[in-house]
Specification:
Elements: H1 37-53, H2 60-69, H3 79-90, E1 93-97, H4 103-111, E2 114-118, H5 135-146, H6 149-168, H7 171-183, E3 186-188, E4 198-200, H8 203-206, H9 209-217, E5 222-225, H10 228-232, E6 244-248, H11 251-259, H12 263-270, E7 286-288, H13 293-296
Parallel strand pairs: 1-2, 3-6, 5-6
Antiparallel strand pairs: 3-4, 5-7
Helix pairs in contact: 2-5, 4-6, 6-7, 6-11
Bound molecules: 7,8-dihydrobiopterin (HBI) and fe (iii) ion.
Length: 301
């Protein structure tokens, strides 16, 4: 996601464990027995904190998926067991990687219904922020939605689309769709188009205590109806809360998106200006128009 950095890099730093593994698909052994008591404790702290916060804030599908995974608060999940549960429901698997993997490797995994999850867990002094996806973000944030059949298909389609977008030189545009849906998406629960009807489904929000509160309750960010062409033109922040969240009305909306021919959309997007993260356009359907106070001290550029 590095191309889009508004400030410094978040994705793109060195992998948690160091260099490139020998495996061409970058997978490593999870080495579950090697986690220390302190590492399991970091998991427990994060798991309990988000477990309390998310009911009523994450969408029903997320909460249901999380529940069916029957994760243990006391232990970092074992990917073998996790994959058994997941494979039975949607045919997905979780494989361990050292951290960020190259785009093509990432897409190839998704296209084959394998979710590459960071093997390492953040340090106790990084509970609220870290640079790279670790096992808490990847498992707690992403895997519950992979239990949902429609969402599971969308993720696979994103992998297929990513491989294609790479060849077309429009990866940055597709990455924005991923960012504003899979990572930072909001959804209208029960078709209520108002601020208090919004729920979280994006993993980057769901795995962050502070962003859960910011994305739903803060007066600073904009919350705008999702539109694929609009999102493809919109830059994003990778090292801070989002200035704008995009809202879908249901997961069918993502699935429709998954199999459309992006070719004509890419062509249109190429000829248009990029949109800065905090901007609301006259053509947007804004559910809430933010004050911008958090990022701009209330002043709009
Ligand atoms: N690798 N492990 C991992 N996790 C990601 O979310 C990820 C990645 N590599 C590339 C990537 N994401 C993005 O740059 C693509 O979605 C464009
Ligand atoms: Fe993620």
């Amino acid at each position: 996601m590095g191309e889009d950095a508004v400030k410094s890099e978040k994705h793109g730093a060195a992998a948690g464990d160091g260099g490139k593994p020998d495996n061409p698909d970058w997978t490593i052994d999870q080495g579950w027995d090697g986690y220390t008591a302190a590492e399991h404790h970091v998991w427990k702290t994060l798991f309990e904190r988000q477990g309390k916060l998310l009911p009523g804030r994450a969408c029903d599908e997320f909460i249901k998926g999380l529940g069916s995974l029957t994760l243990d608060a006391d232990r970092i999940p074992d990917f073998r067991r996790l994959s058994d549960v997941l494979a039975k429901r949607t045919g997905w698997q979780v494989v361990a990687v050292p951290g960020l993997v190259p785009d093509e490797v990432f897409f190839d995994h998704l296209a084959n219904r394998r979710f590459p999850a960071g093997q390492f867990i953040r340090r106790p002094d990084q509970l609220d922020y870290l640079e790279e996806p670790d096992v808490f973000h990847d498992v707690f944030g992403h895997v519950p939605m992979l239990m949902h059949p429609v969402f599971a298909d969308y993720m696979q389609a994103y992998g297929v689309g990513g491989l294609r977008a790479g060849k077309l030189g429009v990866l940055a545009n597709l990455a924005r769709v991923y960012w504003y849906t899979v990572e930072f998406g909001l959804i209208e629960q029960d078709g209520i188009e108002q601020a208090d009807g919004l729920r979280i489904y994006g993993s980057g929000i769901a795995s962050s205590h502070a962003e859960t509160l910011f994305a739903l309750d803060d007066t600073s960010p904009n919350r705008v109806r999702f539109d694929v062409e609009r999102v493809m033109r919109t830059r994003y922040r990778i090292d801070d809360f989002q200035e704008t969240y995009f809202v879908i009305q249901g997961f069918d909306e993502l699935l429709d998106l998954a199999w459309i021919d992006f070719g004509p959309i890419y062509d249109r997007v190429k000829g248009q200006r990029e949109i800065e993260p905090g901007v609301v356009l006259a053509t947007d359907r804004a559910i809430t128009r933010g004050t911008g106070a958090y990022h701009h001290g209330g002043k709009r550029a």
